[in-house]
Amino acid sequence: MSTSFYLSFCLQPFFVKHQDRNGCPIDFRFVAHLLPETVKVLQWRTTYVKHMMYLIRNRIGSGLVLLSLAMDVITDNLIYHFTHNLRLLVTLDLEDRPRSSPQSHNDFSNHGLQLLATCSCLTNLSVVRRREHVPATFRMVNDFGMFLLVEDYKNLESVKLGGFSRVTDAGFASILLFCTQLRKFEVINSFFLSDLAFYDLRNTSSSLVDVRLPSCSLLTSKAAQSIALWTDITDSSLRALGCGNAPIDRCLCDIITDLCIKNCFYITDASIEALASDYGAGKRKRPLRGSISAIAVD
């Protein structure tokens, strides 16, 4: 197999997605010397953590602002290299798919979250562990790690967390309470996230516009009610209900008989049409006129 590259010395974005015939990442260290230091956006899909640390130490410039990686395993050592070499990071998107359960000394832990808090420019954070090969989770991270993350760093605008099996309501609620600029919040496959994480949040400031909680089996309609009281309901929320895309709606939509949307000023006719139809909303949007307090859903 031969692979050729043409790289400009003024190149800013760089994207690599390649695997060998066995689905394993290709070692791209042989192009490291060609990677311009001007790169500001790097998306590297399917790599090994040891290869990425090699690139950070030897080639990637400190001006990188967006880094998106999919690798074998996320470790504290990797986070250490990020925080000490990539001071201008604004977006960090990490995803791993371990082929075996990581050892405690070579995994992502509370210490790694504490290191992330030193990235003063970071506003978008995504850390996800997929269970594609083995049912591995971030078992070295608990609520204390979340407390360390938000204690000194409250400027996060987007947070996506997946595979944090030992984080409970207290840890997730700390992000919601202290990150006042948070606009997007997503938790995937949490064992302990329940309605309590969203209890009595009305007295806190909120900029949230997007909340996604797939595969969080402890959540009920009470969580949806708390989120609705805390944030602005928009067309996209009702579309999700109407199309069956919301995680909670699978057990609720068949039994809904009344839905109050009073004082939901961002709802338009289009979302009402989507809620009543399996085919989604139409293209036309008109502001709702009058005061609609309830609709019946069959």
UniProtKB/TrEMBL annotation:
Residues 10-228, 253-289 form the F-box/LRR-repeat protein 15-like leucin rich repeat domain. One of its GO terms (cellular component) is SCF ubiquitin ligase complex. GO terms for biological process: SCF-dependent proteasomal ubiquitin-dependent protein catabolic process. This is F-box/LRR-repeat protein 15-like leucin rich repeat domain-containing protein. It comes from Aristolochia fimbriata.
